[in-house]
């Protein structure tokens, strides 16, 4: 699961000028060989993604924390799972997650399929005791029997197929045609002067050394956060409380290593950072410059970069709401 | 607010044969003179209805408990509000609520507009301290400034307009073309023999004395529940713990008085009754016969009536998901 991290290795953060590959966001996402995207899977996945009955209490769906009516998350510092419980991390956006090579803040899942399996049985997220229980519940719902059959064939309700369907749906959650995308495709009027200035400053400063690629997510890259050794702002924001990948691997080398998150639609996903401790985008930009690049950004430079980041807000595809099949009886307490 | 109840007065439950008015569900709902339905209001109302930022924690929207992807409620005995809190009542369906003359189980709201104002500031539901706080929060969101302006004119963000928009949206939540509707419109093949038998038994038994009208909700009618004086099943289901309308009015006459709920889509809204204590529809039918009409229903008669009730499941209109405008910064803890 952590191979990808090894492959990308630690790319040195020099802060020196780097060339930003100016690429528009692709409008489709590649699917793995064992889970080709089909309309039937996407439809089933959309149902499962929005179905709160995948949680122990019947109150929390994937969409509760990764809300596709909003910026793909919940605008909270940390999400609220079943029975009002909260964890320590801020929900990453689901929009364009298909372009991440690893998922979760600590990158512990190497595919959307693997990610989708996690929250359902996490006791403070969706709280199901086991996937066997999820499968058993889905099997009691006739409409799901039919939808799984359409997507995968007869008697196909399983953890594997449920997570495949959810991943197939998530691969459709792409937000193209941002001002930036139009700009790089040749429409030089799509970004205003301040946004162009902010883009150039982001490159000069070194932001795009890590936030690289069309999704500005350095796909597959992990970085230490915070990088700066002297612990600026730690008393205020408690960034180091969370050891990142090391929470999973228990290895010293992985301490405070986090997946590089996408900057697409970042203007819609306040509050910021892995623990959601920073309420606004201008503060987040200043902190990143100081903590990762050792630079003190002026208010003017910060405003320019924020203007550019707003140019990364894409077009949200119009979705129809799924009609979820009926529950035969009460299953929740 | 309680005038309507006085007007309809207590219609005697005789259990004798009553004529069922065979009417299909209307496809549009009337709007009050001061809130004519417009496309702009409906669009704004749909946004507000699905926006969890109308709750203190940013986790609970109207749709959380009255889920339009499901049968208009949450399939729970009682709903779960902010911070995992639960109350004592089961969420009524929002589908066809436009045809209720009063809202809430205790009928304390005489319009959809009045109902919409309630849960937002209920401490165990959406938990906002006041509507002033809601309005202040909405005003920070640029997209809402624009959407309210489109629907109501300049600087129009207010409690009154927010609840009007939500009510306008709810008036579009109608599920026509059930098997029963097709049947009463002349397609005698739309219901099978068992369903027709069940319909006739429901009339003979007296179910439709109260569950009358095209929405089977005896519009505006209150009834005592449970009616039977000797407290059958009370130890098991605790129906009498909730004093119904008397919880609001504190009048002895209003004790255990509840609004007659719709039977439309009842097959999708388990568990049943005001406290959600009865898990399945067949049990609910048997209990109603015993408690309200003093009759012991056979398994066969019960199965026939359940088959008929399934014929009241309508067609759910395809809805597009609203795109909710972005939050400028973190507002939740």
Automatic annotation (TrEMBL), chains A, B:
Signal peptide interval: 1-21
Binding site for heme c 2: 207, 210-211, 288
Binding residue positions for heme c 1: 62, 65-66
UniProt entry tagged with the keyword Electron transport: yes
Location (main, coarse): periplasm
Involved pathway(s): One-carbon metabolism; methylamine degradation
UniProt-listed Gene3D superfamilies: Cytochrome c-like domain
Location relative to the cell: Periplasm
Keywords from the UniProt entry: Electron transport, Heme, Iron, Metal-binding, Oxidoreductase, Periplasm, Peroxidase, Signal, Transport
Cofactor: binding details: Binds 2 heme groups.
GO cellular component: periplasmic space
Gene Ontology terms for molecular function: cytochrome-c peroxidase activity; electron transfer activity; heme binding; metal ion binding
Cofactor needs: heme
Residue ranges annotated for the Cytochrome c domain, each copy included: 40-313
Record's protein name: Methylamine utilization protein MauG
């Amino acid at each position: 699961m952590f191979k990808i991290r090894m492959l990308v290795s630690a790319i040195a953060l020099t802060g020196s000028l780097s060339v930003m590959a100016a690429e528009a966001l692709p409008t489709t996402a590649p699917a793995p060989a064992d889970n080709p995207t089909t309309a039937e899977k996407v439809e089933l996945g959309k149902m499962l993604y929005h179905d709160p009955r995948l949680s122990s209490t019947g109150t929390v769906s994937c969409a509760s924390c990764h809300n596709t009516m909003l910026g793909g998350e919940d605008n909270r510092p940390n999400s609220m799972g079943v029975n009002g419980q909260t964890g320590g991390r801020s929900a990453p956006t689901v929009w364009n997650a298909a372009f991440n090579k690893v998922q979760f803040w600590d990158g512990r899942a190497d595919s959307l399929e693997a990610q989708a399996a996690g929250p359902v049985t996490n006791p403070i997220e969706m709280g199901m005791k086991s996937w066997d229980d999820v499968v058993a519940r889905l099997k009691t719902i006739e409409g799901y029997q039919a939808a799984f059959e359409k997507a995968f064939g007869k008697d196909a309700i399983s953890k594997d197929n449920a997570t495949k369907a959810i991943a197939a749906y998530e691969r459709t959650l792409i937000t193209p045609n941002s001002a930036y995308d139009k700009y790089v495709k040749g429409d030089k009027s799509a970004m205003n002067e301040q946004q162009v200035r902010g883009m150039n400053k982001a490159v000069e400063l070194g932001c795009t050394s890590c936030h690289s690629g069309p999704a500005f997510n350095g796909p597959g890259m992990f970085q230490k956060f915070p990088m700066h050794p002297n612990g600026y702002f730690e008393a205020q924001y408690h960034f180091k409380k969370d050891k990142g990948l090391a929470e999973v691997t228990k290895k010293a080398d992985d301490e405070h290593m986090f997946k590089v998150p996408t900057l697409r639609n970042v203007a819609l996903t306040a509050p910021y950072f892995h623990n959601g401790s920073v309420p606004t985008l201008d503060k987040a930009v200043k902190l990143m410059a100081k903590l990762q690049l050792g630079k003190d950004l002026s208010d003017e430079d910060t405003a320019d970069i924020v203007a550019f980041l707003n140019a990364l807000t894409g077009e949200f595809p119009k979705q129809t709401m799924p009609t979820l099949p009926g529950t035969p009886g009460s299953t929740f307490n």
